[in-house]
Write a structure and sequence with these properties.
The chain is an alpha/beta fold. It contains seven helices and five strands. It has a five-stranded parallel beta sheet with strand order 2-3-1-4-5, sandwiched between helices.
C-alpha cells in the first residue's frame, strides 16, 4: 500500500511520516523531493523557472516519481509519501499511474486552518523555514476543497503531531480491512 500524505508546507507531513515509520516495522518513507532536486540540478533544467516546488509541474518529475515510488513500495507496508501536491490533475496522474502498476494507493490530506498553520510556522524555530511555508499557504487554501474528494481528510488544527499520527495510523488499519460489501 502507498499512502500519499498531502497538505500545506508546515502541516507536519514529515513529522507524521517519521512517527509512523517508528511505529510500523514495515513502513517506509519515500522522499519524492529528491527527484525534483536532481531534475533542478541536471543540465538544461537549472533556470529561474524551476524554483522550489515548480519541479512538480515537470512531466519528467511525475514519471520518475511513479517509477521510483513503485520500486520503493516493494517490501514496504505502507510506503509513505509526504509531499504537498496542490494541482489535482498532477496528483491524479501520479496516483492513477501507481494504481495502473498494481499498487493500492490512498490519499490522506492533512488539513489545517490558516490561523493554526501560521501559529505553527511562527513557533517553528528552524532558520528561514517560515517564509516559503507561508507563501505556500495561499495556494493550499485555494486548492484544498478540490483535494478533499481524493481520499481521507484529517483535521489537524487541535491535534499534536502524535495525535495526527494516531489518526493516520487508524486510517491505514481501516484501509487494510477487507471490504465487506
Amino acid at each position: 500500500m502507498i499512502v500519499w500524505l498531502n497538505g500545506p508546507s508546515g502541516v507536519g507531513k514529515a513529522t507524521v511520516t517519521a512517527e509512523l515509520c517508528r511505529r510500523e516495522p514495515r513502513a517506509r518513507a519515500f522522499d519524492a523531493e529528491r527527484i525534483g532536486w536532481v531534475l533542478r540540478h541536471t543540465a538544461g533544467l537549472v533556470r529561474p523557472a524551476v524554483r522550489h516546488g515548480d519541479y512538480r509541474d515537470l512531466p519528467a518529475w511525475r514519471a520518475a516519481t511513479v517509477v521510483a515510488a513503485a520500486r520503493q513500495a516493494r517490501g514496504a507496508d505502507p510506503l509513505l509519501v509526504p509531499l504537498t501536491m496542490l494541482r489535482r490533475g498532477h496528483l491524479e496522474e501520479i496516483l492513477g499511474a501507481l494504481r495502473d502498476r498494481g499498487h493500492e494507493v490512498r490519499h490522506v490530506l492533512l488539513d489545517v486552518s490558516a490561523p493554526a498553520l501560521v501559529e505553527r510556522v511562527e513557533a517553528d524555530d528552524g532558520a528561514g523555514s517560515g517564509g516559503w511555508r507561508l507563501e505556500d499557504l495561499g495556494r493550499y487554501l485555494t486548492a484544498r476543497r478540490d483535494l478533499y474528494s481524493l481520499g481521507e481528510v484529517v483535521d489537524t488544527d487541535d491535534l499534536l503531531a502524535g495525535e495526527v499520527a494516531d489518526e493516520v495510523q487508524e486510517l491505514i488499519q481501516k484501509f487494510r480491512q477487507p471490504d465487506t460489501h
